[in-house]
Target: AMP-binding domain-containing protein
Amino acid sequence: MIFHGEKLEHSDKPIHEVLLERFDIHHKADPDSLAFVTAEDEKDSVTFGQLYKKIVQISEWFVENGYKKGDVVLLASYNNWRCFAAALGAWRAGVTVSAASSQFTSYEMRYQIEDCHAKLIIVDSHTISTVLEATKGLSFVKNIVTISPNPPSPVIQFVSLLARLVRNLRMPSIDPSTDLIFLPYSSGTTGKPKGVMITHLNFSMMLEACVKFFNGAHKALGLPEDFVFPHDLHFLPMYHVMGLFRALITSYRGTTQVLFTKFNMELMLKFIEEYSIAILALVPAIAVRLANSPDLLKKYDISSLSTISVGSAPLPVGAVQKLKQMLPNLKVVQGYGMTELTFATHLQSPDSPEGSVGRPIPGTSMKVKKEDGTLCKPHEVGELWIKGPQMMKGYWKKENLLQELVDEDGFMRTGDIVYFDKNGETFICDRIKELIKVNAKQVAPAELESIALEHDDVADVCVFGVDDANSGERPVACVVPKGKRDLDTMKAIMKHVNRKFR
Model:
């Protein structure tokens, strides 16, 4: 049995053009309308009109400084609206954007910089020392740009990208179906992190699908199709495809995003009360912390909060029950997606049953296969396979791997075990992937095993995940030592591994 989302019109207009047009519309409707406000410093804000100009300035800086279509710029910063502007400026100049976790060690950072061959890296005060260490000896890195003041030489300050008049330079032409826009890193269903090649067409069609879905959801609730909330709290990291794409669609709709540099529970609750926030987008780790903070919740009036939307990993049932005990009218909705599928494949509609991740979004088809390859019927458990315009172009420098994931009908395996009901409402059961999800971050057992095996005292090692109430999962290693099985040997192996990740 195969389920199809609503029909979706083809949209191949580069997404930066779509967004710039929308920013101009928002600006003309209200010149003072803010696109972003920094949560930790509300004086640090940018209007839609200002954002438009800065994106154009940044794109022209890239062209003037010799960056070519297909070059890669790496974002290695905590959340900041300047990184969002830099991403759109890069896309307008034909430059591909990759993004690295702001919590990476120099070892992890160097791996991604070398693999994607980043020619420019944008950092902040938190990540600059890590990036400087990671780029030692890498001659292909042309520039490091910091959004923080007083950078050490030869690091460039971000404001210098904006210290120029707009000259209306000609930008490279974009082939939406082949040119890359985003290069996030994912371990896929197994192995070390790999660059996921997302095209302009992937983003454009994903945006089109989300706009159609949300318009339909609003209509079902009796709201105008183009209804938007005035403010949104954004603390999902923009190095993750979920965080970046959510920033895109929220800015497209014209909502002011209160952007958190780092997540802060009390600051979040303060803003829920101040801005009467109705919907929060969370990862499970934050939802669990919220559920375990009843005393803190009592300090603030968060009665406006009606919905929590959770993605990136399943939310423990216990956390849902705790949240509903504290907030009886709260609705907890979940969606489903993968980095390799741009953002989302399933979203919950107003009539979706509790516990499901919803039905396939517009333009998306799904099927569920048993181990013998036959298709599942309703309520039969199997592996989820997806087909749609949001499917990645392939893995960076490993294009042949996509062939191993896609069947003869063009459906890509997800590695997730699910079942569905007669309406196509989908329920996540388990993962057959090797990956361990720690605070929504993918941890590949093979990578940890490889690092442990570098130690002279390790003969063999097996890493696996165990459930953890706070982080979702945590990795555990079973080690076979070559020599003594004593405490000193264990500590030495742990120290070796920790040096790579701390």
User: Anything to note?
Assistant: The longest helix spans residues 200-220. The first strand starts at residue 2 and ends at 4. DSSP finds 14 helices and 27 strands in the chain.
